[in-house]
Amino acid sequence: MKRIFWILPAILLLSISARAQERGTPAWDISGGYSYLDANLGHSNFRLNGASASADENLNSVIGGRVEVSVYHGTEAGTTVSAQTITYGPVFSYRKFSAFTPYAHLQLGAIHASQGYLGISQSAIKFAAAAGGGVDVHVTKMASVRLQADYLLTRFLTLNQNNLQGSVGLVFSFGRK
């Protein structure tokens, strides 16, 4: 009976690897999922939950472009706080593994924050830059699970904020390069 517990995961891993080898480079990756933001102003920080979605166009097996939208919401000290980001930039993928694809990206864009976000008195739209990376773990030829972590730089009240964001979600791949 104990051998079955070792054999089943091995068969599952081999089947995932076999499917991923057929994968190649997709023309498009569309993803969506849960996102978390640890917003930091230095003397205060708070945590917001939300969602993110992205679309990647892969130019070849290494480089592509990604547009990403994230929406966060929460309550801090009795104040309802929300923030939305939209960023775009290059994504660099390493597609040499059959079961997963690690990547890194640098994106520039904007953040819109509501009253109460990091102490601002009115809602505002400001510059945002995100740098980070993650890994897409291939489940089938067309679907993967994405794990991503980013450093998010924002600037409100003439101060830089060093924020961290993380997300987990599903990726669906379309077309072939």
Explained architecture:
The chain is mostly beta strands and 177 residues long. It has a single domain, classed as Porin (Beta Barrel). The protein is 11% helix and 65% strand. An eight-stranded antiparallel β-barrel has the order 1-2-3-4-5-6-7-8. The chain is elongated, with a radius of gyration of 19 Å. Mean pLDDT is 86; it is low at 16-21.
Quick description:
This protein is 11% helix and 65% strand. The protein has one helix spanning 2-21, and strands at residues 28-40, 45-58, 63-76, 79-93, 100-113, 124-138, 143-156, 159-174. Strands 1-2-3-4-5-6-7-8 form an eight-stranded antiparallel barrel.
List the helices and strands and how they pair.
Layout: H1 2-21, E1 28-40, E2 45-58, E3 63-76, E4 79-93, E5 100-113, E6 124-138, E7 143-156, E8 159-174
Antiparallel strand pairs: 1-2, 1-8, 2-3, 3-4, 4-5, 5-6, 6-7, 7-8
Structural class: mainly beta
> Percent of residues in helical segments?
10-25%
Whole-number tally of structural domains:
1
Radius of gyration: 19 Å
N- to C-terminal separation?
45 Å
Form type: elongated
Name a few traits of the molecule:
177 residues; mainly beta; Porin; 1 helix; 11% helix; elongated
